[in-house]
Amino acid sequence: MDEIVKWLDENAPTELLGTSRGGGAFDGYWGGRRAVDSTPARLRWLEVCASRGLCAPTWLPAYGGAGLSREEAARFEALLRERGLPPPLVGFGLAMLGPVLLEFGTEDQKRRHLPGIASGQIRWCQGYSEPEAGSDLAALACKAEIHDEEIVLTGQKVWTSHADVCDCMFALVRTSTKGRKQEGISFVLVDLEQSGVERRRIRLISGASPFCEVFFDEARAKLSDLVGGRDQGWTVAKALLGHERTAIGSAIGSQLVSLEKALVGAARQHLGVDDGPLPDGLLRDAIARCLIDERCLALTISRVGQSDRPGPESSVLKIAGSEIKQRRHALMMRLTAGEGLGADDDVTRDWLRSRANTIEGGTTEIQLNIIAQRVLGLST
Amino acid sequence: MSLANTDEERQMAELATRLFADHAPPSRLRRYRDEHDAHAYDRGLWAKLVELGFLDSALSLAERCVLAEAAGSVLATEPLGVSWFAMDLMGPGERLVTVAHEPMSRRPGVVSSLDHLVRRNVAHAVSADVTLFTQMKGDEVSLFEVAAGHEALKVEAQQRVDLHPAAIVCVDSTRLPPPVSLSAKAYDRALDRATVVLCAEMLGGAQRAFELTLDYLKTRRQFGVLIGSFQALQHRAARLFVELALTRSAVSAAARADESTLAVLTSVAKARCGETFLRVAEEAIQLHGGIGMTDEHDIGLYLKRAMVTEHLLGNGDEHRRRFATLSGF
Ligand SMILES: Cc1cc2nc3c(=O)[nH]c(=O)nc-3n(C[C@H](O)[C@H](O)[C@H](O)COP(=O)(O)OP(=O)(O)OC[C@H]3O[C@@H](n4cnc5c(N)ncnc54)[C@H](O)[C@@H]3O)c2cc1C
Fold this sequence. Notes:
The structure holds two protein chains of two kinds. Helices cover about 45% and strands about 15% of the residues of chain A. By secondary structure, chain A is α+β, with helices and mostly antiparallel strands. Chain A folds into three domains: about 1-90 and about 110-120, no CATH class; about 125-230, Butyryl-CoA Dehydrogenase, subunit A, domain 2; about 255-375, Butyryl-CoA Dehydrogenase, subunit A, domain 3, CATH 1.20.140.10. In chain A, the strands form two sheets. In chain A, strands 1-4-5-8 form a four-stranded mixed sheet. In chain A, a hairpin with a 2-residue loop joins strand 2 and strand 3 (about 150-160). In chain A, helix 7 runs parallel beside helix 9. Chain A is globular. The model of chain A has no long low-confidence stretch (mean pLDDT about 90). In chain B, helix 6 packs parallel to helix 8 (about 260-290) and helix 6 packs antiparallel against helix 9. By secondary structure, chain B is an alpha+beta fold. A four-stranded mixed sheet of chain B has the order 1-3-4-7. In chain B, a hairpin with a 2-residue loop joins strand 3 and strand 4. Chain B has helices at about 5-25, 30-35, 45-50, 60-75, 80-90, 185-215, 230-255, 260-290, 300-310, 315-325, and strands at about 95-100, 115-125, 130-135, 140-145, 155, 165-170, 180-185, 220, 225. The longest helix of chain B has about 35 residues, at about 185-215. Chain B folds into three domains: about 5-90, no CATH class; about 95-185, Butyryl-CoA Dehydrogenase, subunit A, domain 2 (Beta Barrel), CATH 2.40.110.10; about 185-325, Butyryl-CoA Dehydrogenase, subunit A, domain 3. The complex binds flavin-adenine dinucleotide. Flavin-adenine dinucleotide sits at the interface of chains A and B.
C-alpha cells in the first residue's frame, strides 16, 4: 500500500484532486470510443490506472484487472476518496456486465470482453426494457434467431440509457416462445456499430442525460457472445440486476463528508450564517435527518452490500438509496429556491433526474414485491 | 371536479375549461421553450378571456378561483393571477400590469437596497406594460408604478424550470416618481387574495395530474393485467384522493373567506396545496414509470410547476409559521 500511495502521489493528475462529486459507482469518466465526457486529465488518469489494472482492481490481470483482494481494493478506493479523486472509470461495464461475465461467461468471453471494459475502451449500455416489458421484464419480445454461428436480432428496446454514446449493448432477447416466458430468454452481447441498429434519443424531463430507443432490424451478434447459454439468459439477467441495484443504491453511500458539506453549505448560504448552529430549527432537523439516513445507508452497504452475488438485500439498498437521494435533492431545491428554480441549474437537473432513481433498475414497487415475497415469504 | 358552488360559477368553470382545453394544452409550454418565446402565452386567447369578462372587477374571489382552477389544470400561462393582483392594488385598467412584490421572508441573494429594488419570479414582466413594485415601510406599503421601457428598469427573463414566463426585475428607486401608498392591511388582503388564486391554480394542477395518473393505471398493462389492479397501486391512488379532498376543502374555504378569516385560511390553503401538488406530481411520475421521466410526456410539466408554485407567494414553511402566529402559538 505504501507503494500505491507513492504511485498515486506521482501519477494522479492534480487537476482532478478534490473534484469527485461523491456519486459512487456512476460518478466519473465513462470511457468508450464515442466518449463525450473526456478531458486530457481524465484520459491521463484512466491511462495510468488502466496500465496497472486499477480500473477493475479485483479482476485478474489476464482480464485487465490488478488481482487485488476485496480489502485491498477497498483500501485503494479509500485512498482516492481521501484525495477527492474520482474513480478513473465508471459505467455499466464495470458495475454490471463485468461481474456477471466473471460468474457466467466462458473463458473465451472473459478474455475477449473484460479487458475492453477495464481499459475504458468499450462502453456498454443495458438493453433490457421494451415498451411492453418494463416491470414485467420477462415479457420481452425482441426476437433473436440463430443461424449457424450468428444471431439475427429484430425488435425494439426503450429507455436505453446512453445508447447513443455506447459501443456495445448487453441485451435480453427472446430465443424461444415455448414454455414459461422466463425460459425463452437469452443474454447476448451486441456491437451497436452496425447497419441493422438505429438509435433515437429521448429527452428526459431534466433536459439532460438522454436515454434512447434502439431498433434492431436484422442486426447481427455472434453465437459465441451468448452468455450463460441459449434460453438461459434469465438467470444472468437477474444476477446483473442485483449488481445494478447495489450500484444505484450505493451511489450516495460513498462520500458522506462531501455530501454533508454540500447540504450544510447550501443551508448556510440560504440562511446567511457562516458558522455555528443553523438558526432555523426546521432546516437543521431536515438536514440532520437526511445525513443520518445517509450514514445508515453507508453502514448498511458496508455491512451487507459487498458481495460477488448480491441477493434480495440489493433491493433494500435500491429502495433506501434511491429514496434518500430523492429527499436530498428535494431538500437542496428547498434550500436554493430563493435564487434557483432555473431550468438549467445543476440543482434543478439533479432533482428532476433523481425522480428516476425509484424507477430505473426495477421500480420501488417491484423491489418491495421482491422483499415481501422472496425474503418475507408473503406469497400472493 | 371544480371549486364551483353556484350555477353561475359552474357555467364559468365549464366555459373556462373548454377554452383552455381548446387553446392551451400543456404541450405548448415545450413549444414556447423551444421557440425561445419569452412571452410564453397566447395573446389571442388572452384577448378573448378579457372580452369574456375574466378581468371584470365585479368577480368575487370564489369566481376568480373557479377560473384559476381551470387554468391550472392545463398549466395555462395567461396572466390572470397577476392581473387580478394588480387590480386589487390599484384598481381596474386596460394595461397589462405585473406585481413585483416583496418576498414573504427576505432571502440573502435578493438584495434590495434602499436605492435598488430587486425582485425574482415576477410573472409576465417581459410582456407587462407596467411593473408595480411594492415596498414595505412600517404600517404602509409604497407602490411604484414603472412603465415598460423606463430607463430605471431592468428586466431579465428567467429560464425557469416550470416554463412559465417570469423575470428578475430591478429598478433604481431614486429615479422613480413618488410612490402611492397603501395601508399594510389593504396590501396584506390583496396578497392573500393573490395567494388563494394561486392555490386554486395549484389545486387544478394537482387534480389533473391525479386524473392523468388514474387514466394510466386503467390503461397500462404489465404481467398480463392492468397495473391499476395491483392493490399496492390502488392504495396509492386512494391516498392521493384523500389528500386532494382535504386540499380542495381548504382552497374552497379560503376562496369564500370573510375579512376575519382570510389570512388564516390563506395560509392553511397554501401550506396544504404545496404539499399536495408536489406529492401528487411525484407519485404521478412514479406510477407512470419510464414514460413519466420523458420530456415529451406532459406529466413532468406538472411536477415542475408544483415545485415552483410551492415557492411562490410564501412556501410551506413560511405559511405554517404564519398560521402558528395567527393562531397565537
Ligand atoms: C432514467 C431512466 C433510465 C433507464 N435506463 C434503462 C437502461 O439503461 N436500460 C434498460 O433496459 N432500462 C432502463 N430504464 C427502464 C426501467 O428499468 C423501467 O422504466 C422500469 O423497469 C419500469 O418499467 P416501465 O417504465 O415500463 O413501467 P411499468 O412497468 O409500466 O410500471 C408503471 C408503474 O406500475 C408499477 N407496477 C408495475 N408492476 C407492478 C406490480 N406487480 N406491483 C406493484 N406495482 C407495479 C410500477 O412500479 C410503476 O410505478 C430506465 C428508466 C429510467 C427512468
